[in-house]
Design goal:
Elements: E1 2-11, E2 14-24, E3 29-33, H1 40-48, E4 55-60, E5 63-64, H2 69-74, E6 76-79, H3 91-101, H4 106-119, H5 135-147, E7 153-157, H6 165-180, E8 184-189, H7 192-198, E9 201-206, E10 209-214, H8 216-221, E11 226-234, H9 237-246, E12 255-259, E13 263-269, H10 271-284, E14 288-295, H11 299-307
Parallel strand pairs: 3-8, 3-9, 6-7, 7-8
Antiparallel strand pairs: 1-2, 1-4, 4-5, 9-10, 11-13, 11-14, 12-13
Helix pairs in contact: 3-4, 3-5, 5-6, 9-10
Bound molecules: adenosine-5'-diphosphate and magnesium ion.
Length: 313
């Protein structure tokens, strides 16, 4: 339904998107997970036709976005990262505007606008102006504008940034509704929890490059049976890392994911079994552990392991 092949986008010397390829199927949510500046919006804007790629090929519903842009855009719904609302136009008229832009007229338009108002939970605020809305309400209306024409491929660019928990839950429901009705949804986010919760498959992107791709289960499997071990306390800089490196003869898959003066995040298999050795190494390096927590690895752990930095830096 959506095919991106070897997409490259350069801004002068900067390669914002660097050889990105993925395919997303109908009735699924495909995620692009990455920190700020990773190239998510640039990818979305190349798909929507807002930006012209430097190289590569993109097809939406079988239509090439460059050679056959008009047909490609007919299948697309776009919910941009920056709100695209007419603040002084009632909510219902914002929806009508986008419906008309995609060719809906008459009762088909009115019926669909009414349905969308219900869906996004704004039926009782239809005549009110977006400028009086909360951030979450604006996000929901922004979403509604992207789906009035029932697109086959829906592009969602960080749709939950700056919204309250209730609107966030509502937006998740809306994404699932679109997927269940057969749409192909491309969902970008820098929130690992959202990707894990919503996406059938995803690509992790950093500095314009895909560094891992697959289903959530496949990506977690890249971590093997490893646990994430969070230690708090005091960790003298190089002495601690040397001491931990020294344990690798014993604990083959031990790695330091992040290290600060007062915290240390490690990944290894059967962590609880190795705790005494780790504590001994740390105190041998002049440090000490005041708090220990063990958790199953998640996508954040994988991102740390692959890039050496946190998603939200
Ligand atoms: N119009 C532009 N001109 C120059 N550089 C840009 C422009 N838009 C984005 N960039 C740069 O491209 C990179 C990717 O940006 P973007 O796609 O917005 O990332 P994301 O959406 O993942 O946060 C960043 O380094 C950003 O600063
Ligand atoms: Mg962005």
């Amino acid at each position: 339904m959506l095919v991106v092949e070897q997409l490259v986008k350069e801004y002068g010397d900067l390669t914002a998107v660097d050889d990105v390829s993925f395919e997303a199927r109908a009735g699924t949510v495909f995620g692009l997970l990455g920190p700020n500046g990773a190239g998510k919006s640039t990818t979305i804007n190349c798909i929507s036709g807002l930006l012209t790629p430097t190289a590569g090929r993109i097809a939406v519903s079988g239509h090439d976005v460059i050679k056959d842009g008009t047909a490609a855009r007919r299948s697309l719904g776009i919910v941009p990262q920056e709100l695209a609302l007419y603040e002084d136009l009632p909510a219902v008229d914002n929806l009508r505007y986008w419906g008309k832009a995609y060719g809906l007229r008459g009762t088909a338009l009115e019926d669909r606008v009414a349905t969308v108002l219900e869906l996004i939970g704004l039926a009782d605020r239809a005549k009110d102006l977006p400028k009086e809305f909360s951030g979450g309400m604006k996000r929901r209306l922004n979403f509604g504008c992207g789906v009035v024409h029932q697109p086959k491929v829906l592009l969602l660019d960080e749709p939950t940034v700056g919204v309250d928990p209730q609107s966030r839950a509502k937006l998740f429901d809306l994404v699932e509704t679109e997927r269940n009705s057969g749409a192909c949804v491309l969902y970008t986010t820098h929130y690992m929890e959202e990707a894990e919760r919503l996406c059938d498959s995803l690509a992790i992107i950093d500095h314009g490059k895909i560094i891992a791709q697959g289903t959530v289960a496949e990506l977690k499997a890249q971590l093997g049976a490893r646990d994430a071990l969070q230690l708090n306390g005091q960790f003298p800089d190089s002495a601690t890392s040397e001491a931990i490196e020294g344990l690798r003869e014993d604990i083959a898959d031990l790695e330091i994911l992040s290290q600060a003066e007062d915290s240390l995040l490690l990944t290894l298999s059967a962590a609880s079994h190795h705790l005494p050795k780790i504590f001994a190494a740390i105190s041998g390096a002049g440090g000490n552990v005041t708090e220990t927590s063990l958790r199953s690895p998640n996508l954040e752990t994988l991102f740390l392991l692959l890039t050496g930095k946190e998603l939200r830096e």
